[in-house]
Design brief:
158 residues
Length: 158
């Protein structure tokens, strides 16, 4: 939890590198981020996440109730400096650091293909299906566990 809180504070408070020309590599990463639709996080969702992390972190700071109130206000004020363009840029930088320009080009080509578009379009449905199948598997394991538990109890009476 401390890591999340520290990351959040760092993300909110670090100055933004504005005006720096984008390299071709970073342009590719930005194109990918925009293409896979994670480039425009909802500002309300972001502020809600900040508020949740602040609430989780406040107890670690041992603040008085009044200090905690000011800390919340300061944090929410700092979120005003964080534009969704900045978040997009941060996501693109992360992709650029971990993927080569050639890899980015191949991934972009996939997302632009019919198969890539279909995968994106069905992404939510696929996730729902995966969760349903996982729950079915968990239910199966729990049922088997209960049966095995009952068998062990019969074999080993107290």
């Amino acid at each position: 939890m401390k890591t999340k809180f520290s990351f959040l504070v760092m993300m909110c408070l670090l100055p933004c590198a504005q005006g720096e020309p984008l390299s071709e590599h970073r342009k590719l990463a930005l194109e990918l981020v925009e293409l896979i639709s994670i480039n425009r996080p909802d500002e309300k969702v972001f502020k809600k996440q900040v508020a949740e992390h602040i609430e989780q972190g406040i107890p670690q700071l041992n603040l008085s109730e009044n200090e905690a109130k000011f800390f919340r206000e300061a944090a929410m004020g700092a979120t005003k400096r964080v534009t969704m363009d900045r978040v997009t840029e941060m996501i693109a930088v992360a992709h650029a650091k971990k993927l080569s320009a050639d890899e980015l080009k191949v991934i972009i080509a996939f997302y632009k293909s019919d198969a890539g578009k279909a995968w994106q379009r069905q992404g939510g449905a696929i996730e729902v299906e995966m969760k349903a199948q996982m729950m079915a598997l968990v239910t199966e394991v729990l049922k088997e566990t209960k049966q095995r538990f009952e068998e062990l109890k019969k074999q080993n009476p107290e």
